[in-house]
Amino acid sequence: MTDYFDTEEAIRRWDSFANTYANNATEQGDLHREVFLNPTLFSLMGDIKNKRVLDAGCGEGYLSRILSKSGAKVTAVDYSPTMIDLAKKRRPEDEPIHYQQGNCEELSFLEDASFDLIISNMVIHDLAHFEKAFQEMHRLLVDGGNFIFSILHPCFITPESGWEKTKTGEKLHWNVDQYFYEGVYEQPLGDKERMLFFHRTLTSYINGLINTGFTLEAVIEPMPSKEMLKKYPSFEEDFRCPDFIVFKVKK
Ligand SMILES: C[S@@+](CC[C@H](N)C(=O)[O-])C[C@H]1O[C@@H](n2cnc3c(N)ncnc32)[C@H](O)[C@@H]1O
């Protein structure tokens, strides 16, 4: 764990990892998105036809493409220039997705109250200043608009967490330590990169939302559905504890 890395270093690492990340992405994102995150996000969104939607931290853009195909008017931002280039290249000609490079902590190039819905999928834990991002999302939403975001579950994915295993590799239980540490830590992703994640407690997330002026509408700790378990039986172990948590809040 270390205290001296910030959002700029986190995005530098994302940028150098962008091509590898995009090469592994499917039109559903990846397996965890297909099994846990996409069904949860879409169950919370409701009808998005003709809604002005911001995909905040869009990566290579799979979710923007799904949103646009579902009839939403999509703007998508990512702070990594390489991710934005990749997303633009993958945009089908008939999908008018508007991509722009920008830091979710400071999106002054976007107008106040210009979105009905904001989705941010697995991005907020990449930010050194998550409260600033909450304030920006609040500013960008119309009154009554929703902000839906998924993050690593802060109660279970901490700077020191992981399976306790027997010598033969059998998973005994999931260990959690350093829950009350709030700050940055490094996490291997892919073969070479060590990404930066910013951990904070569930209390900090919820108080951050309340202090920004949001009303909490729903919280989901996604589990695999029967259909997904049939398709991918190894996700059975995800009934033991959740990796993700998804919030739906209203302005
Ligand atoms: C785990 S990826 C998720 C991408 C996409 N939402 C998805 O689900 O496929 C995290 C993304 O957040 C972007 N990101 C990280 N920090 C950011 C920031 N401060 N502002 C905007 N985007 C950021 C990264 O460049 C990366 O594309």
UniProtKB/TrEMBL annotation:
Gene Ontology biological process terms, A to Z: methylation
Top-level taxon of the source organism: Bacteria
Sequence ranges assigned to domain Methyltransferase type in this UniProt record: 54-149
MF terms (GO), sorted A to Z: methyltransferase activity
InterPro entries documented for this protein: Methyltransf_11, SAM-dependent_MTases_sf
Residue stretches in coiled coil: none
Record EC number: 2.1.1.-
PANTHER family, alphabetized: TRANS-ACONITATE 2-METHYLTRANSFERASE, TRANS-ACONITATE 2-METHYLTRANSFERASE-RELATED
Record-given protein name: Class I SAM-dependent methyltransferase
Organism, as annotated: Bacillus carboniphilus
Source species taxonomy: Bacteria, Bacillati, Bacillota, Bacilli, Bacillales
